Amino acid sequence: MPRFKTILVTGGAGYIGSHCVVDLLEAGYEVVAIDNFANAVGGDEGSPALQRAEQITGKTVTFYKADLLDKPQINDIFDKHQVNCVIHFAALKAVGESMQQPLLYYQNNLLGMLNLLEVMRSHNCYQMVFSSSCTVYGEPENLPITETHPTGKITNVYGRTKYFIEEMLKDLSAAEKKWNIISLRYFNPVGAHPSGLIGEDPTKEFTNLMPFMAQVALGKKPVLTVFGNDYNTPDGTGIRDYIHVMDLAAGHVAALKLLNENHVGLKVYNLGTGRGVSVKEIVDVFERVTNTKIPLKYVSRRLGDITAMWADATLAKEELGWTTKYTIEEMCTDFWRWQTMNPDGYPKKNMKAKVVITNGNS
């Protein structure tokens, strides 16, 4: 058993959070998960994604429907559980929505983190893995992007909230040496658990490429809208570093291991494959491995989007002992399995689940 016993996962019912919970349970950790269902399917009855994580692993998750903006509620959860480390996923995350509703993003992402850090400190919990993003780099000055690449020239509000939180963590760890934090800068998570039981089920119209693509392949949407085909790239579409969500989950378990064994203060790692793939390329691969046809409709670029970015993940390999294992073909195949097994995503009603509800006063 690891020395860390109980891990609190914020945003645990979400896409990346639920896949990470599977890896944590399989690694022998006890998981307490919270979610307010801003980005995930579920409600007072519980989370279908976490119920399926339990099904995959044969282990149980303690779940609370909770909101980080409700500080007494979070304090109450920490009172009930001796949390050794927090993995903090909970955030609003749609680039397009963030440009339309900046105050919502600042309130949710920044205040939520402030509340969490204050409650952690009051409970003598100083270990955290923070879910950051490659958006903190802005338009890259050079490629591939290493962790020493300048941050701060950010093209969208969502990315700015991640940047501000990173700066907050920098100041905090400098002022209080007890803190032991790893910030993981994700590139572009795609795919699903190979079982097909859990995957990405967007709850908003602001959706990522792969769910949109799969909906078109299923015939639920007429065309895939591609934002921009006039970028300075070989085929004119934007280039990203797509990473399988299970590789991403493994990165968090590797980060926990490092925090368990060392006092790092604050460390930052890129999590990506190190390979750039264009939107057109990933559509071509998806069509090939799923034997479907995806009509494309090119429209103008979105405000806040960038041309190309991919990671140099050497540091994560050297210090976390982590590398990616899944190919682009496997990312598409696994997502398609999830989508065909669950064409309407998670069940939205009649969920039978045990859920603990706390209101801060219990």
Automatic annotation (TrEMBL):
The keyword Transmembrane helix does not apply. Keywords: Carbohydrate metabolism, Galactose metabolism, Isomerase, NAD. Pfam families: GDP_Man_Dehyd. GO terms for cellular component: cytosol. Pathway: Carbohydrate metabolism; galactose metabolism. CDD domains: UDP_G4E_1_SDR_e. Its cofactor is NAD(+). It is an enzyme of class 5 (isomerase). One of its GO terms (biological process) is galactose catabolic process via UDP-galactose, Leloir pathway. Its EC number is 5.1.3.2. It catalyses: UDP-N-acetyl-alpha-D-glucosamine = UDP-N-acetyl-alpha-D-galactosamine; UDP-alpha-D-glucose = UDP-alpha-D-galactose. Catalyzes two distinct but analogous reactions: the reversible epimerization of UDP-glucose to UDP-galactose and the reversible epimerization of UDP-N-acetylglucosamine to UDP-N-acetylgalactosamine. The reaction with UDP-Gal plays a critical role in the Leloir pathway of galactose catabolism in which galactose is converted to the glycolytic intermediate glucose 6-phosphate. It contributes to the catabolism of dietary galactose and enables the endogenous biosynthesis of both UDP-Gal and UDP-GalNAc when exogenous sources are limited. NCBIfam families: galE (TIGR01179), PRK10675.1 (NF007956). Homodimer. Belongs to the NAD(P)-dependent epimerase/dehydratase family. PANTHER family: UDP-GLUCOSE 4-EPIMERASE. This is UDP-glucose 4-epimerase. The lineage of its organism: Eukaryota, Metazoa, Ecdysozoa, Arthropoda, Hexapoda.
